[in-house]
Specification:
Elements (H helix, E strand, L loop, with lengths): L5 E6 L7 H11 L3 E6 L9 H8 L3 E2 L5 H6 L2 H6 L3 E7 L1 H9 L5 H8 L4 E5 L3 H5 L1 H12 L3 E2 L3 E4 L6 E5 L3 H15 L10 E6 L4 E4 L2 E3 L6 H12 L3 E6 L11 E4 L3 H11 L4 E4 L6 E3 L19 E3 L3 H6 L7 E8 L3 H12 L3 E6 L11 E2 L1 E5 L2 E4 L3 E2 H16 L1
Helix pairs in contact: 1-2, 1-9, 5-8, 10-14
C-alpha cells in the first residue's frame, strides 16, 4: 500500500513530537520515502539528528537556507510529496494554517502545496475546546484538510486529562494508509460526470459603495460542491461574493451579479447536473457612477428596480439542458407549498427547500434542515450539519444518475 509513497512530515513544537520518531520508523518499514520539516519549537523536543537518522534524508528547518533553496526550494518541497502529514499539529500551527500565514518554512510549504494534507492535532484540552481553535479546525475541514485524532487521555501536565492528546503513531499510519487506499479504490460513482453548482449571494450595485444582497454565506453550496467532487465529479462552482475558502478539487468561477452568474453558468454548459444553491438577488437597479449623497430635507433617492434574469428557469428550459436540474427554495412561510409550486414553475427536477425564518439560524449558520421535493413526493431530512446535508444530496444525485 505505501511502497514508494513520498511523505512530507511537518513536525511542530509539542511534547508529542517524540511520537514522530516511531511514525517515521513505521513508514520506512513499509517502503515510504520520508522527508521532514521541523519548526523552531519542534527542535526543543526532538533533534534534527534523530529525525534525519530515521528518515534517511535531510531535515529541513529554515525558510532562508540558501543551500536548500538552491537544491530543491520550498515550492518544490511542497509539491514533491504524495501526502503532507502535520504531526503534531499544535494550536499555534493550526491557527496559522487557518489564517493563511507563511512566516516560516512549515507554513510556506503548507500554503504553497497542491497535495492533500493530513493533520494530527495535539494540545491541552482547554486549548482544543477554545472557540478560536474550534473555528480554525472547522475552517481547515472546509478546505479539505483531513484529520486524525485528537484522542482523549492524560496530558503531559500533571492532573490534566481530556481531548487533545495526539493520535498514536499506528493510528496516524492507519489514516495514511486509508488515504492511499481511497485513491486506488473502485471508480467513484460520479466519475466522468460534469456538474455545475452555484453558491453564495449575488451583489447588485446601487452605487460604488452600496449594493442589494442577502444573508447567504455560501456554506451550503460550497459544501455540496466538495461532496460532489469527493464522489468523482468534475465540478464547476460559480460563486458569488463569500468569505469562505474555495473547496479543494473544484473549478471555481467568482462572480458578483446575477447577470454574471448566468453568463458563467451558460459558458460552463454542457453538464450532466446543475445545482442552483445560490441565493440570487431577485432585483437590480441602474447603478449610479458616484456615491448617492443624503441631501438635508430631501427624501431618499428613488431606486427603479428591474427583475434579474432567472438562472434556474433559464437553464431548466434551455438547450443543452442538464439531465438533472436541482433548485433551492429558501422560504419563511408555507415552505412546502411554495417549494412544490416553484419546482413546477421553474421546470426543474428537484427542489431543496428550507425554512430560513427568524430563529432558524439557517442563513449564515453551520446547520440546515431541508425538504427534498421531487416528482415522487417530499422527503424531510433531519437538522444536520451543512456538510452532512451536502453528502446526503450528493449521494442522491449519484443514485439518480446511476
Amino acid at each position: 500500500m505505501l511502497a514508494n509513497k513520498r511523505i512530507l512530515l511537518i513536525i511542530a513544537g509539542g511534547i508529542a513530537a517524540y511520537k514522530c520518531l516511531e511514525l517515521i520508523r513505521r513508514l520506512k518499514e513499509r517502503g515510504c520515502s520520508v522527508r521532514a520539516i521541523m519548526t523552531k519549537s519542534a527542535r526543543q523536543f526532538v533533534t534534527p539528528l534523530s529525525v534525519g537518522a530515521l528518515s534517511g534524508d535531510r531535515v529541513y528547518t529554515d525558510l532562508f537556507d540558501l543551500t536548500a533553496e538552491h537544491d530543491i526550494g520550498h515550492i518544490q518541497l511542497s509539491r514533491d510529496a504524495d501526502l503532507l502529514v502535520v504531526a503534531p499539529a499544535t494550536a499555534d500551527l493550526i491557527a496559522r494554517m487557518a489564517a493563511g500565514l507563511a512566516d516560516d518554512l512549515a507554513t510556506n510549504v503548507l500554503l504553497a502545496t497542491d497535495k492533500p494534507v493530513l493533520i494530527a492535532p495535539a494540545m491541552n484540552p482547554v486549548m482544543w475546546s477554545h472557540p478560536a481553535t474550534v473555528r480554525n479546525v472547522a475552517w481547515l475541514r472546509e478546505t479539505g484538510i483531513a484529520m486524525v485524532g485528537p484522542n482523549v487521555g492524560a496530558m503531559a501536565e500533571r492532573g490534566e486529562f481530556g481531548a487533545g492528546r495526539m493520535a498514536e503513531p499506528m493510528e496516524i499510519l492507519a489514516a495514511i494508509e486509508a488515504h492511499f487506499a481511497s485513491a486506488i479504490a473502485a471508480p467513484k460513482p460520479l466519475t466522468g460526470k460534469h456538474i455545475i453548482i452555484t453558491s453564495g449571494p449575488t451583489h447588485e450595485p446601487i452605487d460604488p459603495v452600496r449594493y442589494i444582497a442577502n444573508r447567504s454565506s455560501g456554506r451550503q453550496g460550497h459544501a455540496i460542491a466538495k461532496a460532489l467532487a469527493d464522489l468523482g465529479a468534475r465540478v464547476t462552482l460559480v460563486s458569488g461574493p463569500v468569505a469562505i475558502a474555495d473547496p479543494v478539487g473544484v473549478d471555481v468561477l467568482h462572480v458578483e451579479t446575477a447577470a454574471e452568474m448566468l453568463a458563467a453558468c451558460s459558458a460552463a454548459l454542457p453538464a450532466d447536473v446543475a445545482v442552483f444553491a445560490a441565493a440570487v438577488a431577485d432585483w437590480r437597479t441602474e447603478a449610479a457612477s458616484l456615491k448617492l449623497k443624503k441631501t438635508p430635507g430631501a427624501g431618499p433617492p428613488a431606486l427603479a428596480l428591474v427583475q434579474n434574469p432567472d438562472i434556474l428557469a433559464t437553464v431548466a428550459h434551455g438547450t443543452p439542458r442538464p439531465r438533472l436540474v436541482v433548485g433551492f427554495a429558501a422560504e419563511t412561510n408555507d415552505v412546502l407549498a411554495h417549494a412544490s409550486e416553484k419546482r413546477l414553475r421553474k421546470g426543474c427536477d428537484w427542489i431543496v427547500a428550507n425554512d430560513v425564518g427568524a430563529g432558524t439560524d439557517i442563513m449564515g449558520g453551520t446547520e440546515n434542515e431541508v425538504h427534498l421535493v421531487t416528482e415522487a413526493g417530499i422527503e424531510t431530512w433531519p437538522r444536520l450539519a451543512k456538510q452532512d446535508v451536502a453528502d446526503r444530496l450528493a449521494a442522491r444525485i449519484a443514485e439518480a444518475l446511476a
